[in-house]
Amino acid sequence: MTSHDTQLRSRTDDLAKALDLAGDRLDPEVAARIRTAIEGVRERLALGVDHTVVALAGGTGSGKSSLFNRISRLNFADVGAKRPTTARITACSWSDRATALLDWLEVDPERRIARGSELDGDAEQGLEGLVLLDLPDHDSIEPAHQEVVNRVLPLVDLLVWVVDPQKYADDALHSGYLQKSVGLEASMVVALNQIDTVPTTQRGNLVADMGRLLEEDGLSGVYVTMVSARTGEGLGQVRELLEQAVARRSVAASRVAGELDRAGALLLEETPGEVPWTMSTAVEEEVVAIGEATGLSAVAGQVAAAVRNGYGRPEFAPPQADAVALSRSRWLARAGKALRPGWKRALDEAVAPADRLVEDTQRALSKVSLDTRGPSSARATRTTALVAIGVAVVTGALAILSSLGVLDLDRAIVATFAIVAGVAVLVALGFFLAGIQIRRTLARRREATVLASGRGAVERVVQETMGKPTQTLLDEHRRVRELAQSARDTGKASPLTGPLTLPTAKDLSGLSTDAPSTEDAATREPSA
């Protein structure tokens, strides 16, 4: 096994892991396409890339069967009136070891033929390892024909679209196939057949227009060649192109890489890279919202009042269900803003329902201490203040009675009683004021404690019921994207443009009609 094979298998495994991890959160149609691609790639890699599978595909009347016979130098493929009646693939292999590959491609044994025998000598050596397929018409009125084409196209290594001057712009070809082949340019060629029916002066314009349509389809750099299956004109170039593909050997691997790249791109579309989400900010906002729904601030204020006043039994009421449901909806909208529908659905299922949020919040808040006891020094302070008041009353009364003559006391003693009464009043007042301040300070502390404990309880509920499930899902979303990115082709092969001696589209505009070779003329067939 080559290092390239190992890399392709590793990329395939990454894509499979991503698909398994994503599960039913992907669009079913997209998941099916990715799964089909993985299965096809694994089967193709299991068969090895020693053979290069080239398929001739095209619409009715494009002449691909005649071109197949020309390339193989055999009259094996059905042409003309026979063609529309069969949905079977015809195959010609330049190898005697392609049986397993042809079985995988589901080519009927009677529709297979092999070249490259000793009788051919070196004439076919350049195509050794080639497996050439002639597919049914993709635009046939028979649904079975199109089904075969759709099944085989993802399995081939090099796809040659055979088009004719009349139908090369057919929408069934462009919208049905070419536009869906973006990313596979390195494994695609367009052959303009029946070029003998086009005036020499118009051929360059035809090639240029075909190139323009390909660009509009999103395909860049696809090689367009001209050929005539009837006259053999340009056939040598087509065979040279196939020889180049076989010699490169990387065409098969490029096709596999292209399939992985396309499947990875599909998966990346299902997992957008930018997920605007900051857990801490979202948690903080919803803690505040749910705290308001529970009346947390009001209960904390009631605790403070009870501490200040010395009476009251505050308690948490059940959270407002509508407010909690709104908080959950806001959470889902923010976390799922950039997610595809399947992931949004999974997020909704992962996050706890609103009724559980209400229950968990109420249970968590019931454990928050609502301590309304006064300060521990309250009794001593009150007792001291009352004693001071008693002293003030007694000494003040004695001083007043002496001043009224009711009691006959020494003037110095009366003055002393008056002073003691005044001091006692001040002491009592001081202790009363100190008691009030101590209660107020304690009330503020208890209020802050209830707020902090309540918010902590609510935060734990938010984290457990919404935060952790969301983070787990987003982590899986990121992991799926990372695996999909690693499955993509980082070093795409250049589109197949033929050997250096082949002309470009620009060069073709100045070409005159080529004369067919003697060998090609010997196998000349009627135009299809």
TrEMBL record:
Residues 54-193 form the G domain. Keywords: Membrane, Transmembrane, Transmembrane helix. One of its GO terms (biological process) is ribosomal small subunit assembly. The keyword Transmembrane helix applies. GO terms for molecular function: GTP binding; ribosomal small subunit binding; rRNA binding. Pfam families: MMR_HSR1. The chain crosses the membrane at residues 385-407, 413-436. GO terms for cellular component: cytosol. Signal peptide: none annotated. InterPro entries: GTP-bd, GTPase_Era-like, P-loop_NTPase. Residues 484-528 are annotated as: Disordered. The keyword Membrane applies. This is 50S ribosome-binding GTPase. It comes from Oerskovia douganii.
